[in-house]
Every structure is written in C-alpha cells, then in structure tokens.
Amino acid sequence: MTDTAPPPTVWPAFRARDARAVIRFLVDALGFEETAVYADGDVVQHAQLDWPPGGGVMLGSVRDVPDDPWPATPGTAAAYLVTDDIAAVHARARAAGAEVVQQLHDTGYGGQEFAVRDPEGNRWSVGTYRGEPRRAR
Fold first, then answer.
1. Cβ neighbours, 10 Å, residue 94
2. Domains of the chain (ranges plus CATH)?
3. Confidence (pTM)
4. What is the pLDDT of residues 66-89, one digit of tens each?
5. Whole-angstrom distance between the N-terminal and C-terminal Cα of the chain?
6. Which of 42, 44, 115, 129 could serve as 19's disulfide partner, Cβ 3.0–4.6 Å?
7. CB–CB of 22/7 below 8 Å?
8. Which helix H or strand E contains 87, and what residues bound it?
9. d(Cα 48, Cα 133) in Å, to the nearest integer?
C-alpha cells in the first residue's frame, strides 16, 4: 500500500499551567516523543511532541498577561490520537496512572478507542479510526 497523504501541516496547540508536567505525561503515559522544548526556567516557550505514527502537538506555558497573543485556557484542549496498537497505548496509559475518562470500547463507526485526561484536564482520545479517505480533487 502506498501512502499518498501529505506530511502533517496542522498541529493542535495549547497552553498549560505546568507545561513540563504535561510534557512528561504525554511522553510517559501516551508515548509521544519529545522533539523540541524551548524553555526559560520553568516557562516553556514552545514544545513540539511528535506522535510516533505521524503528526504531533505543540504547547507552551500559559502567560498570565493581558496582551497574551495566544490566550488559550489551560485544561480545555482535546485531541484524538490514531494508533494501530491501541492495547499497548491503553496499557501504557493505565500503567502510568493516567485518569481514564472513557474505557476502551468498540465504536459505532468502526474501531476502538479510550480517553484519558492529562494533569491539567485536557482530554486525549486514543483510537484506531483513521478517518475517512480524502476526496479526489
């Protein structure tokens, strides 16, 4: 099978009160790879975490300033992660003590999924559903 999908150019991005704790959670509990972290002490200016099958997320520390150019509220993000080995990711998350908010189950649209919350309340759904094929142009 030939993969004709272009490389990812859309990155979910969010803020965290304790960005380093969220990074640790995503690496340890879900299996993200820490690709880049630019920080000044405890303040993470920018982090890129790659999801091994493709894509990733970007995050940084919340700025409690009135002119914050990215005023995202910590703990309100949600993302869906696709994996071919959901049992392994589920076991890893449980072993790391992740708060499971939705148990592993079969979905009505094919595949399986479960969901956890990170230490700040962001929701991470993990499943086997890859989405529908792209329409021909």
1. 14
2. 13-63+75-127 (3.10.180.10)
3. 0.89
4. 898 888 999 999 999 999 999 999
5. 21
6. 44
7. no
8. helix 86-95
9. 27
